[in-house]
Automatic annotation (TrEMBL), chain A:
Residues 3-33, 96-125 form the 4Fe-4S ferredoxin-type domain. Its main location: other. Signal peptide: none annotated. One of its GO terms (cellular component) is cell envelope. It holds the Pfam family Fer4_11. One of its GO terms (molecular function) is 4 iron, 4 sulfur cluster binding. This is Fe-S-cluster-containing hydrogenase subunit. It is found in: Cell envelope. InterPro entries: 4Fe4S_Fe-S-bd, 4Fe4S_Fe_S_CS, FDH_Electron_Transfer_Unit. It comes from Desulfoscipio gibsoniae DSM 7213. Gene3D superfamilies: 3.30.70.20.
TrEMBL record, chain B:
This is Polysulfide reductase. Its main location: membrane. GO terms for cellular component: plasma membrane. It is a multi-pass membrane protein. It holds the Pfam family NrfD. Belongs to the NrfD family. It is found in: Cell membrane. Keywords: Cell membrane, Membrane, Transmembrane, Transmembrane helix. The keyword Transmembrane applies.
Length: 269, 379
């Protein structure tokens, strides 16, 4: 079973500790800050910010709730980016993380378009930019690795309220549903259980997921199935179409030759 | 055939302008390669693909489809009556693909790493198929063209290439059939993102069919331009016959498209009055329905009718690709994107380079001579 994180949005206090921990552990440069209508800063992820906390105000009659949701790569069980990458620069590891291997990357940015959650970002300012996204603190080269040393991801370790929980995906799912069923405040939905065929980051919340711009219309069928069913037909189509073309080439050539011979013979007869 | 060794390239004001555009383009290309995509383009995290992929690659490949459809009709099915247009159609296609390769090269961030997918096989990606097929097909087309080239230069090779031609031609039809549909396949993974007017599991066959029927349309526009410039005319009956093949394919395309919209319950969007609905209507009415009417009426018996057919069909296919890349994606991607000056300059410059190369080759190799022979024979 693969590793996962369960996020309880109702427990997040918006301290951004996870955001800072991620930057520090992964040696990511600071982003230039700017003010926007909410307290999220930066307001979206970028090539240098792998996780960011979204701040939203939810009004329900007289009741006003402040809610915060951490956003990062969801580490899909069947990732669209991995199936889209034509150079194997993105790979799904058995432990759970979807890992980016920069040396294989061509920089085509198809993964950015393929991702249903708009996660991969690009280092636009650089002459030779790379894709960047959360690696789940998993590093095959070792330098930034926490997972294989039995440690929790940097963001989870830092979380002071227990809003982030690290563990086996199956166990976390059971836990999530127990929480939802025992407390009426929760929305009856574990985000990430079925989205895009299931993800390694699971969310439960007491406000609608749309509040944070989480797409709730994502197909539950794994995205790679759409393209891979098409790609599987390629060898068959290529072989049969090639054979048909060769057949037609020989047949029509011979037919024209016969026609020409008959045409040539006629005046002589 | 006369085999003069001297090279000619007449200078005219139009050509000077084209050379100017090409030169500015090359300067910008240098800038982009040295300073990166972010500096040269308006692309951003919301809009990772822009004009270069949308126009130079996706549209360019479709418009260059005239090569494989002609090769199929003339060389595989041996419809000899269409021979007069074969060489110029295949030349346009070759140049088109070379420009597509250029556009693709400029659009990748790690351009020195472009060869990577040849050794690191992401074979489950549709882009993998596009990449392999487009590069191999460009190579095949260069070899196919060498049959023409060796009539003038490196003559000892001519016979050897000629023997190879049937194999080249068959592979040269097979590969584009695969990747023209794969370009549509690229957008299958945009499920839920691409507007339902365009997203369909039938995108690959739609892209394939439209690249096939736009071939003769491109040829009719091109032969009318070349006819004026080089004072030679392809017989009307030949063009009309070719366009009928196009029109039949367009009818099937239209029927499939409507059927598919109804099946997916997306037909309601057509007359919804939204931007997407109106762009879709424009694409279908101006780019498919009117050309079909021209094709199967007496309108196609005049040169004007043929050129209108060609221009509208080409417009329709360009609009279709633009709609898939931009209109259909804009709602889900959000953000803003409009191509930068440098992006325009490169796209326009690449087309200029293509036109210049076409003129140079037509004037120095046996591309159009065959027409004259044919005209003498048939008329």
């Amino acid at each position: 079973m693969s590793k996962a994180v369960l996020v309880d949005i109702s427990k997040c206090i918006g301290c951004k500790g996870c955001q800072v921990a991620c930057k520090q552990w992964n040696d990511l440069p600071a982003a230039k800050t700017s003010f926007s209508n909410d307290l999220g800063n930066p307001s979206d992820g970028s090539g240098y910010t792998w996780t960011h906390v979204r701040f939203r105000t939810v009004e329900n009659g007289d009741e006003v709730k402040y809610r915060f949701a951490k956003h990062q790569c969801f580490h899909c069980l069947e990732p669209a980016c991995v199936s889209a990458c034509f150079a194997r620069a993105l790979q799904k590891s058995p432990e759970g993380p979807v890992v980016y291997y920069p040396h294989l990357c061509v920089g085509c940015r198809y993964c950015m378009l393929a991702c249903p959650f708009s996660v991969p970002k690009y280092e636009w300012e650089k002459t030779f930019p790379l894709i960047s996204k959360c690696q789940f603190c998993f590093d095959p080269d070792g330098k930034y690795d926490r997972m294989r040393h039995g440690m929790k991801p940097a963001c989870v370790s830092t979380c002071p309220t227990g809003a982030l929980q690290y563990g086996e995906r199956g166990e976390l799912l059971v836990q999530a549903w127990n929480k939802i069923n025992s407390n009426t405040k929760y929305v009856k939905h574990v985000y990430g259980e079925k989205e895009a065929g299931g993800t390694s980051w699971l969310y439960i919340s007491d406000v609608p997921f749309e509040t944070f711009g989480f797409r709730t219309d994502v197909t539950t069928r794994p995205l790679p199935e759409y393209t891979e069913s098409y790609m599987r037909m390629t060898p068959v189509v290529a072989l049969s179409w090639g054979a048909l073309l060769t057949g037609m080439f020989l047949y029509t050539k011979r037919r024209n030759e016969i026609a020409r011979e008959q045409h040539d013979q006629k005046p002589g007869l | 055939m006369t085999a003069k060794k001297n090279w000619t390239f007449k200078m005219t004001p139009v050509r000077k302008v084209l050379i100017g555009l090409a030169a500015i383009c090359l300067v910008v290309v240098g800038y982009r390669l040295a300073f990166g995509l972010g500096n040269a383009t308006n692309l951003n995290d919301q809009w990772p693909w822009g004009l270069w992929i949308g126009f130079d690659v996706l549209t360019g490949v479709a418009l260059a489809g005239g090569g494989y459809s002609t090769a199929l009709i003339v060389h595989i099915l041996h419809r000899d009556q269409f021979k007069p247009i074969a060489r110029s159609a295949m030349l346009t296609s070759l140049l088109g693909y070379l420009l597509v390769m250029g556009g693709l090269f400029l659009d990748i961030g790690q351009w020195f790493n472009f060869w990577r997918p040849f050794v690191s096989w992401g074979y489950h990606s549709v882009l993998f198929e596009v990449f392999w097929c487009v590069s191999l097909y460009t190579l095949i087309q260069v070899l196919e063209f060498s049959e023409i080239a060796t009539e003038k230069i490196m003559k000892p090779w001519h016979c050897k290439i000629k023997k190879l031609m049937p194999v080249l031609l068959i592979i040269g039809v097979l590969l584009p059939t695969l990747h023209q549909s794969s370009l549509g396949g690229l957008y299958l993974i945009e499920v839920g993102k691409l507007h339902p007017l365009w997203w369909s599991m039938l995108l690959p066959p739609f892209f394939l069919m439209s690249s096939f029927f736009v071939g003769p349309a491109m040829i009719s526009v091109e032969t009318s331009l070349a006819g004026k410039a080089y004072n030679h005319q392809v017989p009307l009956s030949v063009m009309r016959g070719l366009i009928k093949i196009s029109g039949t394919m367009m009818l099937i395309y239209l029927a499939l498209k409507i059927g598919d919209l109804i099946y997916r319950d997306a037909f309601k969007w057509v007359f919804s009055g939204t931007l997407e609905g109106n762009m879709f209507l424009l694409e279908i009415v101006a780019g498919v329905i009117i050309p079909i009417i021209i094709c199967f009426s007496s309108l196609s018996s005049t040169r004007k009718g043929l050129v209108t057919f060609g221009a509208l069909t080409v417009f329709g296919v360009i609009l279709n690709r633009m709609n898939v890349v931009f209109t259909g994606m804009s709602k889900s991607l959000g953000g803003n994107y409009f191509p930068s000056m440098m992006e325009w300059v490169v796209s326009i410059g690449l087309v200029s380079i293509g036109v210049l190369a076409y003129m140079f080759i037509v004037e120095n190799f046996g591309i159009l001579e065959k027409h004259h022979d044919h005209q003498v024979l048939t008329n």
